[in-house]
Amino acid sequence: MIRKIPAFCFFVLAVYATAAAEEYRIDNVVRGVKSTALLLDGKFYSIIEDNGEIVEFDSHKKIFTLIDPSLRIQTQINAAEMRKKITDMQQKIAGDPKTDKESFAYFAANPVFTSESDTAAGRIVLQSRWIDYEITAVPFHDKSSEMYYDFCDWMCYLNLRINPFSSAVLTRLTVNRLLREEKKFPVSVSVAIYPKGKQGFSKPDKAESSHKIVRRFSEPERKQIGQINELKQKFPQVSFEEYQKQVAGKK
Questions:
Q1: In the predicted model, what is the mean pLDDT of the chain?
Q2: What are the angstrom distances between the C-alpha of 25 and each of 14, 44, 100, 118, 193?
Q3: What Cα–Cα distance (Å) separates residue 26 from each residue in 14, 217, 233?
Q4: What are phi and psi of 170, to 5 degrees?
Q5: Domain boundaries in the chain?
Q6: Which residue of 43, 79, 81, 137 has the lowest C-beta tally within 10 Å?
Q7: CA–CA gap between residue 3 and residue 56 (Å, rounded)
Q8: Which residues are CB-contacts of 38 (< 8 A; sequence separation ≥ 6)?
Q9: Which carries the bigger pLDDT value, residue 13 or residue 60?
Q10: Residue 151 has what pLDDT?
Q11: What is the pLDDT of residue 119?
């Protein structure tokens, strides 16, 4: 089962002056799935519209909390331990002499793209045998931008933890690093994935995303965060494996 957890490597549609407090709302549409992410005091809260699932990331403690209101359960994931396991796996695949250097698994563990950019148009194109990205980006200078990009990286790791066979998300770390280095944020992203590589008339799996960031919360959003904190107090905590099992069972 593929769970729909948004990939926040790509998220900016509009940028406004920096607010005094660290608070943002990010509206996302990824593969047609709408979600909202809220940032307040170093914590990100992501609410997915189609299934109601909530993801909280505490950037200070490096802890993910996943909450399913319909099942009335929650689970926690140590983000640092999760990242280490995935990084170790990447290094093992990339360094194993038995790994087929022409395989998608090797590319995902050690992605390399050719790139071209049009600075005036804010357009960046990244290409490879397996995956192509076309990104429209805008300059972005913000005191909290590093926190954003860190969160983007963490969400990539979470996606892979939830969907172990979706190794393509690892390539987003490379894309994210490029945007971080150029101090740019994407306005829109088009992705074309070739599961068997570019050959003959192979057709890619295409996806598009758009994102909008808004400074300062409205009162309903503040209440929403309060309600999430209440759910954390009420719902029992289960293991990640049990959480996955119950979420899969309600489909």
A1: 83
A2: 11, 10, 43, 29, 29
A3: 10, 10, 25
A4: -65, -30
A5: 23-249
A6: 81
A7: 16
A8: 23, 24, 25, 26, 44, 45, 46, 47, 217, 221, 224, 225
A9: 60
A10: 84
A11: 82
> Distance between CA atoms of 83 and 159, rounded to whole angstroms?
11
* Ramachandran angles phi, psi of 98, nearest 5°: -85, -15
Residue whose pair of structure tokens reads 């990104």 in the numeric block: 135
CA–CA gap between residue 122 and residue 96 (Å, rounded):
38
Cα separation of 205 and 218, whole Å? 37
Q: Where are the alpha helices (DSSP H) in the chain?
A: 79-95, 104-109, 145-162, 171-182, 219-234, 240-249
| Phi, psi of 178, rounded to the nearest 5 degrees | -60, -45
Tens digit of each residue's pLDDT (9 = 90 or more) over 180-208: 888 887 888 899 999 888 988 888 999 89
* Residues in contact with 115: Cβ distance below 8 Å, sequence separation at least 6, in sequence order: 124, 125, 126, 127, 178
| Per-residue confidence (pLDDT) for residue 118, from 0 to 100 | 87
| Residue with the two structure tokens 């490879």 | 128
Q: Are 7 and 169 in contact (CB under 8 A)?
A: yes
Do 219 and 45 meet the contact criterion of CB atoms below 8 Å apart?
A: no
Is the pLDDT at 124 greater than 80, yes or no?
A: yes
Coil/strand/helix, residue 218: coil
Whether the full predicted model's pTM is greater than 0.90, yes or no, is no
Q: Which residue has the tokens 């969160």?
A: 151
- Cβ atoms of 185 and 12 within 8 Å: the answer is yes
Give alpha helix (H) positions in 13-115: 79-95, 104-109
CATH architecture of the domain with range 23-249: Clam (2.50)
> Residue type for 171, please?
T
Over 60: is that where the pLDDT of 82 sits? yes
